[in-house]
Structures are given as C-alpha cells and as structure tokens.
C-alpha cells in the first residue's frame, strides 16, 4: 500500500466508507455506478482507463470479515462482486505449455476444480491479497479462495478436461500439473464456503 494512502488515512480517519459504487464483473472488468445510476437503477459503467484500473488493483485489501475493498486515499470503497473476488485466464508459455493467472497478473496453482449449475468453471487456489488489522495496518496475506474462469477460456479448459459420461459425485477430471476431480457446486454456496460477501453492506 502506497505511503500516501496510509498518511491520508491517518490525517482523515473518519471519512465514511463507500458502498454500491464499485463492482467487479464476471470477466474481470471494473465498473462504477455513480449516484445518478444508483438512484435510477441504471447499468454500471465500464472503466476503460488503464491507469485507473491499475490504481484500483494496487490498493485492494479485505477486512478479514469477508468484505473486499479498494482503499482510495482515506476512503474505503467496498467492492460488489458479480461472482467472486478473482477472475482467471489461461496464458500460453513456450512449447505448448500454459499457466493460469488472475486478471491482476498473479500466477496461481489450482487446488480444486468446481463446476456450478450454469456450467461455469471455478478454481480453488491460494491468492495474494492484503488484510487490514485493527490498527489500520495493511498486511500481505495468502488466502484460500476461488477464481472464476473467464468464459473465453472454456475451450482451452476443455482440452485439459475429461468428462465422465456416467458419474456419481465427481463430474470428471482436470488434467493439470496434478489431476483434479471436477466437483459440482452451487454458486449460492460459494460465498459462505470461501468467506467473502458479494455485496457488502454498511
């Protein structure tokens, strides 16, 4: 976290938190909903400015209670997730090899593979984030959470997947560095299982 952020927090400690303004969609894009859009229930606006997106991603954290936020100077802007805190992509390496990264650029190693009721692929993994403690200090932390595979990468996923025609329990296998069972999950259960809120409230 940049030093000017922590200095601003100390100088203006009582700035109200912001809710309902910033969201993270299923394709790893940031969206904003200004006051007019909130009042009239309009669609959120896609953030196109690359510098602004990088600024948001450089100042992400969570409060240890499942609420993720963007620390914008002295103000804590809580994030609405369309699905979950991370979106994942396949990236090609040399000689036909691939790696999986978050849309923020972190390479992850899947620990479990899940398939929800809409046919979406979710990977459980350890992700790097920051946790803010009671003194307002941001500490780096690895958290066990989930990332949604970008829908444009489902065809790549299928090249590594073996689907069982007649299954009881496991739906198939994801043949990655280690073979992972593809397990069914309902999307409504993910926040409680992985300790995050899709829509933080004041």
Low-pLDDT parts are none
Cα(first) to Cα(last) distance is 24 Å
Give helix % range: 10-25%
Major sheet: order of its strands? 9-8-7-12-11-10-15-14-13
Strand/helix succession: HEEHEHEEEEEEEEEHEEEH
Q: How much of the residues is beta strand, in percent?
A: 35-45%
Give the total of beta strands. Answer: 15
Whole-number average pLDDT? Answer: 88
The helix-and-strand class reads alpha+beta
Characterise this structure:
The chain has 202 residues and is α+β, with helices and mostly antiparallel strands. 17% of the residues lie in helices and 41% in strands. The protein has 5 helices and 15 strands.
Structure in a nutshell:
This protein has five helices and 15 strands. It has helices spanning 3-11, 35-40, 50-58, 154-159, 190-194, and strands at residues 18-24, 30-32, 45-46, 60-62, 68-72, 75-81, 86-92, 98-102, 107-108, 112-115, 121-132, 138-149, 161-163, 172-175, 179-184. Strands 9-8-7-12-11-10-15-14-13 form a nine-stranded mixed beta sheet. A six-stranded mixed beta sheet has the order 3-2-1-6-5-4.
Task: Compile the SSE list and pairings.
Layout: H1 3-11, E1 18-24, E2 30-32, H2 35-40, E3 45-46, H3 50-58, E4 60-62, E5 68-72, E6 75-81, E7 86-92, E8 98-102, E9 107-108, E10 112-115, E11 121-132, E12 138-149, H4 154-159, E13 161-163, E14 172-175, E15 179-184, H5 190-194
Parallel strand pairs: 1-6, 7-12, 10-15
Antiparallel strand pairs: 1-2, 2-3, 4-5, 5-6, 7-8, 8-9, 10-11, 11-12, 13-14, 14-15
């Amino acid at each position: 976290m940049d030093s000017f952020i922590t200095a601003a927090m100390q100088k203006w400690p009582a700035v109200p938190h912001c809710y309902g303004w910033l969201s993270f969609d299923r394709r790893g894009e940031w969206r904003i909903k200004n006051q007019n859009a909130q009042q009239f229930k309009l669609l959120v606006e896609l953030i196109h400015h690359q510098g602004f997106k990088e600024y948001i991603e450089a100042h992400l954290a969570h409060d240890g209670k499942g609420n993720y936020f963007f620390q914008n100077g002295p103000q804590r802007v809580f994030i609405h997730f369309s699905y979950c805190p991370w979106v994942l992509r396949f990236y090609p390496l040399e000689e036909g090899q691939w790696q999986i990264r978050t849309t923020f650029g972190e390479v992850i190693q899947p620990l479990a593979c899940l398939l929800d009721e809409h046919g979406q692929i979710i990977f459980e993994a350890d992700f790097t984030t920051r946790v803010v403690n009671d003194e307002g200090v941001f500490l780096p932390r690895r958290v066990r959470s989930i990332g949604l595979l970008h829908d444009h990468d489902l065809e790549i996923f299928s090249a590594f997947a073996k689907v069982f025609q007649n299954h009881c329990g496991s739906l198939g296998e994801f043949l990655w560095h280690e073979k992972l069972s593809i397990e069914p999950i309902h999307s409504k259960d993910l926040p409680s299982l992985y300790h995050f809120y899709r829509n933080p409230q004041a």
